[in-house]
Design a protein that fits this description.
Strand content: 15-25%
Number of helices: 12
Number of strands: 11
Helix content: 25-40%
Structural class: alpha/beta
Oligomer: single chain
Order of helices and strands: EEEHEHEEEHEHEHEHHEHHHHH
Largest sheet: 7 strands, parallel
């Protein structure tokens, strides 16, 4: 007998003008396989299933997470639930198999096609709903890369196209080749770059949705991180400038102010931070990442937090745009950002 699943209906938001609609909050799956300490595949799959049961439709992965094993994990989790999922994955960042810390970017058309075929196989699906270029390859005209991506749409292997960490100018050029439905970028209280570099304005001018990754500041805005020494040895954040030395102390002081505002709103700091991102516009769909069901439920409760204009002003007062200390990636990572 087939089990009947009770799926909650979350509010949906449109990404772009091409018809793509997703839950107002998505689920970032990267940390289930890479960058944030030990893996627990069973709990991660349970978290994905729970997310789908709670009405989350957008799942976000990439071929470089692992590398490759995160797509395999997500594919396994959705094997009998494909109709519930808007599946997003990415290509373009290439990791050196002899040294996983070394990365390159590849946007050549032949690579685009090969990467898509490999992702389809790992995910075990016939098509990808939203296919992103993970980072812009400055050695290849964006028109050539997006042209190859458009061919995947025409072939029925991809439904909608996206870019990640692309500048406003790059987005304009890409959108002229084929409609771009979503631009993924880091965006949160502690990363306000899309407001400052013209990216958010370009999205709205072109009708492109914004998908913020790390909307909780890589976990810092949860208020649960108090010492950099608490991170696992292989946790990415040990090498992040914002989590080091004096920067850590300065940023922790900002989070303490967020915690005070959250107490006043009777919510957690994470819920306040997510509610702030959601309040920036109905064309914004954050994808907080978690590999545990309890944090998933806490994140989704942010949808029930309503911020008044006074609340938003108070948040800005304690956490102004330029308050954060340190760059969001080490130098090598920042060079890959097409700002």
């Amino acid at each position: 007998m087939n089990q009947v699943r009770q799926t909650r209906q979350l509010h949906t938001r449109a990404l772009g003008n091409q018809g793509l609609k997703v839950s107002a909050l998505g689920l970032g799956c990267m940390g289930m396989s890479d960058f944030y300490g030990e893996r627990d595949d069973a709990e991660s799959i349970a978290t994905i299933h729970h997310a789908l049961d709670l009405g989350v439709s957008l799942l976000d992965t990439a071929d470089m997470y692992g590398p490759f094993i995160n797509e395999e994990l997500v594919g396994k989790a959705i094997r009998d639930r494909r109709d519930q999922v808007v599946l997003a994955t990415k290509f373009g960042i290439v990791r050196d198999e002899t040294n996983m810390q070394v990365r390159g970017v590849n946007g050549r058309p032949e690579y685009v096609r090969a990467a898509c075929e490999a992702s389809l196989k790992r995910l075990g699906v016939e098509y990808i709903d939203l296919y992103y270029q993970h980072r812009v390859d400055l050695t290849v005209p964006i028109e050539e890369t997006v042209g190859a991506m458009a061919e995947l749409v025409q072939a029925g292997k991809v439904r909608y196209l996206g870019l990640s960490e692309a500048s406003a100018q790059t987005l304009e050029r890409a959108h002229a080749v084929h409609p771009i439905s979503a631009l993924q970028s880091e965006y949160s209280l502690w990363t306000r770059d899309p407001e400052q570099n013209g990216m958010l304005d370009a999205c709205r001018r072109l009708g492109v949705g914004l998908v913020p990754y790390s909307p909780l500041g890589r976990g810092f805005l949860t208020g649960e991180i108090t010492r950099p020494e608490d991170f696992a040895e292989d946790d990415y954040r040990r090498n992040s400038p914002r989590f080091q030395g004096e920067n850590f102390a300065r940023n922790l002081a900002l989070v303490e102010k967020v915690k005070a505002l959250a107490t006043r709103k009777a919510c957690t700091p994470a819920q306040l931070a997510l509610a702030w991102v959601l309040a920036q516009g109905d064309d914004i769909v954050p994808i907080p990442g978690t590999k545990r069901r309890k944090y998933l439920e806490q994140n989704l409760a942010a949808l029930d937090v309503t911020l008044s204009s006074t609340d938003l002003a108070d948040i800005t007062a304690v956490f102004p745009t330029d308050a954060i200390a340190g760059s969001r990636y080490p130098e090598a990572g920042m060079r890959m950002v097409n700002a």
